[in-house]
Amino acid sequence: MTLTREALARAYRQMKTIREFEERLHLEIQTGEIPGFTHLYAGQEAVAVGVCATLGDRDYIVSTHRGHGHCIAKGCDVAGMMKEIYGRRDGLCKGKGGSMHIADVTKGMLGANAIVGGGPPIAVGAAIACKLRGDGTVSVAFGGDGSCNQGTVFEALNLAVVLQVPTIFVFENNGYSEHTGVDYAVGSKDIAGRARAFGMPAERCDGSDFHAVHAAMQRALEHARGGRGPAAIEAVTTRFYGHFEGDPQLYRARDEVRRQRESMDCLKRFRDSAAAHGLSASELDALDAAVLADIDAAVAGAKASPPPAEAELTTDVYSSY
Amino acid sequence: MAQKSMRDAINDALHLEMARDPRVIVLGEDVSGGAGGSSGEREASGGIFGVTKGLLPKFGAGRVIDTPISESAIIGAAAGAALAGLRPVAELMFADFVGVSLDQIFNQMAKFRYMFGGKTGCPAVVRLAMGAGMNMGAQHSQTIYPLLASVPGLKVVIPSNAYDAKGLMLSALRDDDPVMFFEHKALYPRKGEVPDGDYTVPFGEAALVREGEHVTVVALARMVVFAEKAIDALAKDGISCDLIDPRTVSPLDADTILESVENTGRLVVVDESPPRCSLAADIAAIVASRGFRSLRAPIEIVTAPHTPVPFARELERAYVPSPQRIEQAIRKVMQE
Ligand SMILES: Cc1ncc(C[n+]2csc(CCOP(=O)(O)OP(=O)(O)O)c2C)c(N)n1
Ligand SMILES: [Mg+2]
Asked: At B10, which CATH number?
C-alpha cells in the first residue's frame, strides 16, 4: 500500500517532532530543571514512525526506557509528555511516572518501561486480547538490540508463536546496549535470525529509511492480520546521543555520531526523496516551523505547570483498598 | 587515613580481594564496558556507578566479565561458578532488577546448602544499587532488601558509610554463603575515613553510631545519615539517643538493639522501605516480643508510605523518610 501525500506529510511531521522534542530536551536537561535521567531517541525516529504509521488507536504498543519516540508516533499528547518529563501535575501520568513510564492507554500506548525486556510479554498478552476481539488489531513490542538477550523476550517470542497471536516484535538495533556493542552481546550477531528461529518470519531493514521500515511493517502486518501469528523486524539504526544524558560515550569512536548524522539521518533521507512522493521542500519547511512552535509551547507549558500536590503521593496505588 | 567515597571504598575491597584470591571473579552488565564498541576503549565504563573501575585492566577479561542484559543468567552463572569453586561477585546494577532474576537468587543460591544436606555452599556476592532520592522512578529506586532478608539462606548486608562498606565487602567476599550486598545510590559519593589496607567488618554486629540515654533509634543505609541529623537537632532540647546501625539485617544483631532499649525504654526504627513486612516492622516485632518489659512508650516506625516510588521531585521528597519526620517520631516517644 502506498501512502498518500497527507500520510507522508504526517509521518515527516512526527519524525521532526520527535527529533526536536529530543534535541530540545538535550538542551533543557542542562538547566537542571528536569528530574531523573533521560534516554533520548534522536536518530531512531524512522523506526517508531515507520511502524506506528501503520497502526490505529486500537492497536497496541509497548515501549522501552527510550520511549519518547514511540509515544509521539503512537499519538500521545506532546505537551502532556513534556509535563510528565518535567514531573508536573498535569503530565500524562500526573508526574508519577516520568520519562521512563509515559503511557496513554487510550492511544494504545501501554507504557514505556524501565525494565529491559519487561515489555514483550505484555505485548503478547495484548495480542491475545486482539485475537479474541477478532477485529484485526495487533500489538507491537518495541525493544533494543540489548533487550533481545533477555530471557523474558525469548519467552515472549515463543509464546506468541505457540498461541499464534498478532504481535510484531520490533528490535531497534542501534549498535549498543548502554556501553557495550551489539556484536559482543548478541552471540549470533543476528537478531532477525534469532526471532526466525522461534518460528516467525523476520526481516532486517534500514532503520534510518522511513519507507523501508514502513514497507517491512506492512509485510509483518499482512502476516499477523492474516491469522498466521507473530512476525519480527530488526531495524538497523543509531542513536545520536549517549545511552542517557550525561554519558561520556567512551566506547564510541570520536567521529562516529558526526558520520552517522551525515549518512543515517532519517529526516535528511526523507527529504532527499520527498519530491518523488510529491512533497516540496517548502511544504516540509513549513512543517518544520510548525513543529518548532509546538515544542516551544510544550516546554513553556511544562515550565509553567505546577508540581503535583503532596496528597497525590498515596493515590492511584489501588482501585479500591 | 585517606578520605574515600563509599564507591571507592567498595572498589578498594574488590581490588584487594581479587589480588589476594584468584577465585574471585566479577560479572555483570558494563562492569567494564566498551566490549564491541567502535572506539576500542576496553574499559569504557567501570560499572554504571563506577564501582568496578580499574578491575579489567588489572585482572583481565577472564575474571572481569561483561555480560549481555540477562539478569537470570548473570545470577545463575554466579551460583554455578560458586558451586564449582569460584567466588563470584555478580553486579545486578539496580536492585529493582532482582525482579528479573529472583528465581536464581531465592530458589537456587539461597537453598543449595540446606537442600544438599550441608555438603556445599554458594559463596557468591550479589551487588545491588538501591534507593530513592534521584528521581529515577518506580522501577529504579526501590529498597527491596526486606524481600531478600525474608529468605532463609541469604545474608543481607546494608552499609551506611564508606568504612563499613569496605570492611563488609571484604567479609562478604570471604563468606561461604550467598551475600546480598545493598549499596544506597545516594551514599556512593559520601566520603569517610577508609584505611588503605585489609580489614573486615563482621556480619551480625551492629554499630553504635551515637550514644544517648532517652531513645533507641535504629536506622539503615541512608537513614543512618538522616537519623544523625535528627538526633543532632534534638540535642539542644536535651534529648539524647542511641543510634544503632545493624549493618547486616540477616544476620541481625538483635541483642545490641534489645540491650539499648533496656536502657532507654523507647524505640524508633527508620527504614526507607514501605512499612508492610519491612525491616522496621521486623525489628519492632522483635523488640515488642523480646523487650516488651523494657518499653515505656509505643514503638514508632518511620518508613516510606505503602506506594511505589514516585517520579516528581516533590512527591519523591515526600516519599523518603526525612530528618524532620525522624525528629517528630523521637519527640513523640519522648512524650510517654
Ligand atoms: C532488567 C534491566 N537490566 C538492565 C537495565 C539497565 N539498562 C537500561 S537500558 C540498558 C541498555 C538497553 O539496550 P538496548 O536494549 O539495546 O536499548 P537502547 O538503550 O539501545 O535503546 C540497560 C542495560 C534495565 N533498565 N533493566
Ligand atoms: Mg541498543
From this structure: 3.40.50.970
Secondary structure class of A274 (helix, strand, coil):
coil
Helix (H) or strand (E) holding B130: strand B125-130
Is B201 inside any structural domain?
A: no
Name the maximum alpha-carbon separation found in chain B: 67
What's the total number of domains in chain B?
2
Whether residue B111 sits in one domain with residue B220? no
- The answer as to whether B293 is a domain residue is yes
* Domain A5-303 in this protein, CATH class: alpha beta
In which domain, by residue range, is B288 found?
207-334
Instruction: Show which of B170, B194, B218 is a domain's final residue.
Output: B194
* B221 lies in the same domain as B188: no
Is residue A1 very low, low, confident or very high in pLDDT (cuts 50, 70, 90)?
A: low
Strand-pair category, A176-177 with A180-181: antiparallel
Cα-Cα end-to-end distance for chain B? 44
Q: Which residues of A touch B44 (CB under 8 A)?
A: 179, 250-251
Which residue's alpha carbon is nearest to atom 13 within ligand 1?
A177
Distance CA B162, CA B3 (A): 9
**B138 Cβ under 8 Å from any chain A Cβ:** yes
pLDDT tens, A191-215? Answer: 999 999 999 999 999 999 999 999 9
pLDDT band, very low/low/confident/very high, at A101 (cuts 50, 70, 90): very high
CA distance A59 to A77: 17
Residues A24 and A299 sit within 8 Å (Cβ to Cβ) = yes
Distance CA A169, CA A123 (A): 9
Cα separation, A212 vs A203, whole angstroms: 11
Stretches in chain B below the pLDDT threshold 50: none
Q: Are residues B158 and B251 in the same domain?
A: no
* Cα–Cα distance, B282 to B279 (Å, whole number): 5
- Ligand 1 centroid to Cα of residue A115, in Å, is 7
Domain residue ranges in chain A: 5-303
Three-state secondary structure string covering A199-238? CCCEEEEECCCHHHHHHHHHHHHHHHHCCCCCEEEEEECC
Amino acid at B180: M
pTM of structure: 0.97
**What element of type H or E holds B248?**
strand B248-250
A231 forms beta bridges with A168
Q: Which three cell numbers stand for residue A39?
A: 534516554
Mark yes or no for CB contact B69/A185 under 8 Å: yes
Mutation pick from B307, B311, B320, B322 vs chain A, by most beta carbons of A within 10 Å, is: B311
pLDDT in tens, A34-63: 999 999 999 999 999 999 999 999 999 999
Q: Look at residue B199 and tell me if it is in a domain.
A: no
CA–CA dist B286, B267 (Å, integer): 11
